[in-house]
Specification:
The chain is built from 12 helices and no strands. By secondary structure, the chain is mainly alpha-helical. It folds into 2 domains: 103 residues, Tetratricopeptide repeat domain (Serine Threonine Protein Phosphatase 5, Tetratricopeptide repeat), CATH 1.25.40.10; 118 residues, Serine Threonine Protein Phosphatase 5, Tetratricopeptide repeat, CATH 1.25.40. About 4% of the residues have low confidence.
């Protein structure tokens, strides 16, 4: 199986109007935010927008500092925690990914993508039960998050609960019939259930959608194909 690696973050806040010819990640935009902060150091929105721009430029340490300033100056800045989680993910620090997104959903309990991020991180950490709980909460709040369904299926596979994996994967591909990764992982679930016909059906669908299925999995399926 492969994990759906989409990680959700938040764009800039719109409390201030950006000049039309000043792209958010440009040096001009960054300079403008720094100027605003020199005039009003406690402006959480400017710190946040600066963090987003720095993050887009790959200046992650500076972005962390900006997001922390935004959080310090706003008790409701859940977006700052979400983006800190994204940076920590890019840095490979899954424990801090969890901490950041937990704080985000504490501030904004109905933020479904925060729970999806938690589930993704827990899945990577092999904390299967925690992953299942977080992903089910994400889906409860927003049933349209395809990656949450995909990672929930993978969590059930990680748990060796093939029945739940198949049920979840079936709902996923019904919702998103062109989601190649979903078909590939559903094929894996059917293979584990020794339903080789269904496994072949979904792996072929994944390949037709452009997915590069692992060659070893295809070798395992080969003896079960009709001549």
């Amino acid at each position: 199986m492969r994990i759906a690696t989409s990680f959700y973050l938040y764009p800039k806040r719109n409390a201030m109007k950006t000049p039309e010819k000043m792209p958010q990640g440009s040096e001009e935009f960054i300079a403008e935010q720094r100027k605003m902060l020199s005039e009003n150091p406690e402006c959480a929105n400017s710190s946040y927008n600066l963090g987003v721009a720095l993050m887009q430029k790959g200046k992650l340490d500076e972005a962390i500092e900006a997001f922390n300033d935004a959080i310090a100056n706003s008790g409701r800045m859940f977006e700052g925690h979400v983006n800190l989680g994204y940076i920590y993910f890019k840095q490979g620090d899954l424990e801090r990914v969890v901490e950041a997104n937990q704080r985000a959903v504490e501030i904004e309990p109905r933020y479904a993508r925060g729970y999806a991020n938690l589930g993704f991180a827990y899945l990577q950490m092999l904390k299967t039960e925690e992953a299942i709980g977080a992903l089910k909460k994400a889906i409860e709040l927003n049933p349209d998050i395809v990656q949450a369904w995909s990672n929930l299926m993978n969590a059930y596979l990680q748990k060796d609960d093939v029945k739940e994996a198949i049920e979840t994967g079936g709902k996923l591909v019904e919702m998103a019939p062109d989601f190649a990764l979903g078909h590939n992982n559903l094929a894996s679930a059917y293979y584990n259930n020794e339903d080789y016909e269904k496994a072949i059906e979904h792996v072929d669908k994944a390949i037709s959608l452009g997915f590069k299925t692992h060659p070893e999995f295809l070798k395992k399926l080969a003896p079960h194909r009709a001549d």
